[in-house]
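Two quick folds needed for the group meeting slides. Do the first one here.
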Amino acid sequence: MAGVSAAAALEARQRDPHAAIEMGRAALRAARAAGDGEEASAAERAIGLAWRELHDFDAALRHLRRSVRTAERAGSTRAAALARMSLAFVLSTTGRHAQALRAINEAVPHLRGADAGSGRMQRGLVLHYLCRYDEALREYNGAIEVVRRFGERLVEARALNNRGLLRAYTGGLRAADEDFDRAAALYQELDQALAVADVRWNAGISASRAGDVPRALTMFAEAEREYRRLEVPRPALLINRLELLVSVPLLEEARAEADRALQELGGDLVLARSEAMFYRARVALLEGDLDRAVTMAVAARTGFRREKREVWAEGARHVELRAAYLSGQRTRPLVTALARVATRLDALGWRMAGLEARVDAALVARDLGDRSRAVAELTAAGAARRGGPAAHRVQGWYAEALRRDLLGNARGAQIALRRGLALLDDYRVSLGATELRALSGAQGAALASEGLRSAVAGGRAGRVLSWAEAWRAGALRMTPARPPEDSGLADALAELRAVTADLEAASTAGRPTAALRQRQVRGEQRVRELTRRTGGGGAVFKPPAVGELARALGGSALVEYVDHEGALLAVVVAGGRASLHHLGPLDGALRELRLLRFALHRLVTLPEHVDRTPVRAGAEHAAGLLQNRLLEPLRRRLDDRPLVLAPTGRLGGLPWSALPACRGRAVTVVPSATVWLRAATSTRATHDRPAHDRSAHDRSAHDRSAHDRASHDRAVLAAGPRLPAAPTEIAEIAALDPGPASVLVGADATVDAVASAMDGAPLAHVAAHGSFRADNPLFSALELADGPLTAYDLERLRTPPALVVLSACDSGLSAVRPGDELMGFTAALLGLGTRTLVAPVIPVPAEVTTPLMVDLHRGLGAGLPPALALAAAQEAHRDDGDAAFAACAGFLCFGA
């Protein structure tokens, strides 16, 4: 590398830091040989800055200090000032802000022209780290003005990037994006790929602050791929992604990334480590782990104070105070502390945290009887409803509702709460991806709880139902958004299937699986990234009034169970009117539910030679207890009507078919009354019996929408591998159908073939091994010939089947998130528009399931609605043995 200059190494350090180090070393050797101290200082500086890009801060500081000493020995004031400027940059990165400020203040007076612009930019960065934002902005502005006069495009790009990040954190989001766009353009002109990735990452931060979650996730993912391509580590950048994950909140992912960050961010990455502790505290707070939240927040605040980062320290203090509030503490000092933190956070640009702290202060003051203080704090917080990101406005409407309630304006409070929830719905529908829509519902918890509290206190069943529906399963009230065809999702899913198949084969053969499991994790993350980019928009279906529900129910009865502050309530809509019932503590029902599921599972898994009599008796006993708690108090209102049951999320997975009152009766289970009404009045199918039992002329063009005319009348019957009873089940069902059917078994039953056949089909029946993923329910799967068919695959269907039967273990189970949001096959299919799903919520043995499924289809062929056909089949086989009893108990009819 003869003839390489230090200037060339400096220019290359963000484009290719590895190459810059080698270039700097070559320039250093040449400078020493020539006795050129100024060039040697510049070479040391280039090497140090390149090591900083690679996050080796010890090496960076070592070379930069050498650069200062070499320049001083050479008598070059300019070179020493430039070296001190770079040294200040790395000192700030490692949290040594006082040293950094001394270094840059010593350097700036000796810099002239374009160098002075660089110095001002660096001083701005140090002040930025110190949260002295107004001073930092002045320095950035001055730096940009200077370097533009001298045509220093690289320094201008760096200053614009830094100023954009500052503006993103202080609320100037539009101006921030303008800075990022200009910086990226300059870096691209200068062939600085690594710097372009840094700008993309910062633009993701800006999008996150603006509440544009899909764009933020996309920018982060693009930047991460570029870092991997360039083989440049950026462990500290985990922190910005953590902030976004917590804001959604994607809590499982955020917890995992925070724990990973705390493991990886050691050494000199003290700033990032303190921030990782802060976000781990936030995750613990959202999960209700208050002790861990306080422990992590105290540790984070200690670090922030040591690093002299005031705003971060106040943020950590807020977590401590909020944990005290949530634990039940109510004191005047707590009010004062919360209000003080709120003022400081707001002044320092952390508006959302400031709003939360101010509302908490008001609630503590209210509980202490200090109404005037509470009203004052809520008035200040309520102003946020008038502008800013959606999350700020939602919190503002919540504060305004609380204020109106304190002033005796109950009707105005209800209006404000509904305005906040409507705004949240608009925001959630803009997210597009099912996962983001479902998880962001947590942001409406406070508004919905306040509305429900008021409704329950009033005792009016219709209002309780209205408030329960306002927040329940909100993601399923939204028009589904499908990923674009060219997103690369199909390829990512196919690659994931191949890795999963290889992993299964390696595990079976006893070969090492660690590398394959890592590839599987990366593949799943890639699928999630691609689906999260899905564009949003569409309609939000509003909860129905009691009258509308009553008309649609006809002779049926709807029971919606409500979890209210640990008590279980039920609203019954039957015979044209609604009634409210108090059913006691929810914990009792949950305990009995666990007993029933355990007993049914034992009936299926115990060896044949073991006496199942006591287990069967235990299952019957638990089922009787649940009936006495959940249905018996409602008996007079329900009579013998067909039932539509909308359990609260914590009762998810309850095998209702096991309860005596549900046996032989048409029972449909739904996430919410709104979801049921949407499915029941869907134009996707015009009759209750499946389309495969009707000839083509029975379905006139008049009866179908334009979209339905693109679908077909061929039923889909598919069998997965490694399940000997599955092909038999499919063959027997196919023999019942006089019309054509797409029968896919053996090697023909691939994911693409089954999904393609399901698209627009009137009926789909899949018999396969099923698995439920509690950690990531959208990866719950049906095993087909070439690998798993997941909920992500189903979301790519243009027109879902009208009726779906899944003869697969646990395929009716759903993960439940705040707001009774369901995630899994049930939510995926009902959300897409499937009218009815029949699936089990427990493991079911194939040998006893086949007769049950055949009789289900025999009833469908006779014209019975799915719920009644399932009930008749269950009654026919319930006494065929203990395993058959469990299988009959496990299958439910979801939807309509």
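Then this one, please, same format:
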Amino acid sequence: MLQSKMNWKFSNAQTESIDWDSNEISPLIKELLIQRGITSAEAAKEFLSPDLENLYHPQGFSDISKATERVHKAIANKEKILVFGDYDADGVSSTTVLLTTLQELGADCDYYIPNRFTEGYGPNEDAFKTASDNEISLIITVDTGIASIHEATVAKQLGIDLVITDHHEPQEQLPEAFAIIHPKCSPDYTFKELAGVGVAFKFAESLLGYFPKHLLDLVAIGTIADLVPLKSENRILASYGLKTLSATNRPGLIALKKVCNINGDVSEEDVGFLIGPRLNAVGRLQDANLAVQLLMSEDQDEAEHIAEMVQSINQERQKIVSDIVKEADQMVGSLEEQGVIVVAKEGWNQGVLGIVASNLVRKYDRPAIVLTILPEKEQVKGSARSIPAFDLFSSCMEIRDMFTHFGGHSQAAGMTLPLENLQLLQAELNKIINQQLTKEDFSQEIEVSKTIAIPEINEELVNEIRQLAPFGMDNPKPIFHLNDIPSDIRQIGNMKKHLKMQFKHENHLLDGIGFSLGGLYDHISPQTPLSVVGELGINEWNGNKKVQIVIRDMKIEERQVFDHRGKKRFDITPYVNNNTSHLAVHHTLLNENSIVPDEVTCIRYDADISLLDEVSTLYLFEMPTNLTILQDLVCKTNPSNIHVCFQLEDSVFMKAFPSREDFKWLYAFVAKRKQVNLQKELPMIMDAKAWTKDRILFMSNVFFELEFVNIENGIIQLNTDPMKKDLLESPSYQERLNQAEVEKILYYSTYEELRMWFSNCIKDGEMPKEEVTHGL
């Protein structure tokens, strides 16, 4: 067996009771839509055919009319306007949207993005004072500001009107700003989940007085990169934005697509995995102004130069993340004691700690807080990521007094706190999470849309599923379940990190790729049905298209037998999992060729098996003296996995077993000679019959045990009037017969025969019947 890493949650959406026109929507798409809560033909049409007409009017935002009027007044009076943004992809694209809008309106405007390392997140007093010194009278925040209580007061004292546009979680107290444009602070605005760039876009529409389609490419980047739910307005904006991005004439985006090797239509994956991370990298390592310069550039040569700089920064970011992940990984202690992982170290780059936290969450299925220690300030500062079952924002708000600064949402947050509060933070969060969650809640869940068979999977099916794109939060790619025996499986990639397999059913072929699943290779036995869940897609290479399943998780639900027979040196360490029980069995003490970790219990075959419990994995290092011993042991321990590690130096099975005629000939020879001196006549017998010395000595010993002969000082003599006995009554004969049978079944059998023997052994609790050989 192989346990899955995640909890597989199969959809139980009922489709029969919903009557749609099957000519318009296929049964599969209907089923997938219902799983997304779309239960009418009208709602399905809106989802499958996003329409700009279904966007909500900006006037639904509280304060938007007031803010619009203030901006137009500032432009008319030639006041200086400052756009105050954030340093991530959402903030950078939001800044570009509003800055482009203000320039189109003829405003005297500029932008400012704080330095992550010297200023931290969001508006700050020094920046506002500098703005005042530069005669700025109106500041508009984008993708930030909703938690800036103090900074809003400072702006008011400086005589600056502050307009906040944001989408982050409002806290108990709102800033005293001139205007706040925020979906969650606007009772009349229906959709609450816009990204920062979505809010900025709505404000731009209000300012311009028309729908600015030319800004949708920027909206798509911020919306997808910020991982907001891709439903309702976000789905419409992302859908049209990707089309605009595919045909964009912005020099900066053309150059960025070039370094990302994006050609043709741009997908949500291109934004999420290529464009977004590169824009984020700039603000993570240095000043995010470079990213805004790229998006605002009007010269193609300049844009390409900046894009190459961005590419270089992203490569540096990847190296820094890799190094910190390794260090953080070594600092993670016992998971039994940690409901929430908290790691901190001086010198860690603040800009990448969110990525590091995400890595730890994926590996350990725990919320993770990763912090850098700032000794000169006696503070720690960093980022947190959570698991779906744990609302990080609300939990941290319960202990808000511990933080100097805190903000975020249920699954991600940024924070600064005194160094002395570090241990207390972990203790308090552990207390909260252990009160809220059970052990099962920590495991990741994966929503499985449907079980599917290999003949059903083809390119047409994949294209049909693309009707649901763009995929993202609240509209994930459908996950399909497949159970079949791989015809081929191997490790690929650097350090063999990935798993490549192929499934075959009659004339249908399906490739499977499991990224970062290469470590499971040794845990999959041959000819075993493998249950996998993953996303269907098209792999295009050198012009060839092949359907594949990108495997997210896998499991094996039946007992596995692993065949290591004949290996001179065998280390079972890679198979040992601390969360399961392991038992190694042998005749004698293990030798230096058998490597067994300390956590594995070792017993001999003559141990009292009544004292044994069931185990997860059983390792058999030597063959038993008979099959019944092994059968009883396996039935008692009922292992999920059996590793057969037998070595054989001197095979009984491969030696010719004396036949009945051989025994008759030797008996007749001794009878004729009355006595035979083996020391002298052994070579002659070996010559005459082409027998080995061992064979002759074995047959002689059988006669002796049956009391047919007497052997003294190497001389064999017949006993007078011996009793008639079966050859099986000889212990040596019986032992050799048993040993040959053991070797035949356990060592010389095919893998499939070995697997079936163990399967029958456990299933039936009965040994396969041995052939009875009669004597003379």
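Slide caption for protein two: DSSP finds 23 helices and 29 strands in the chain.
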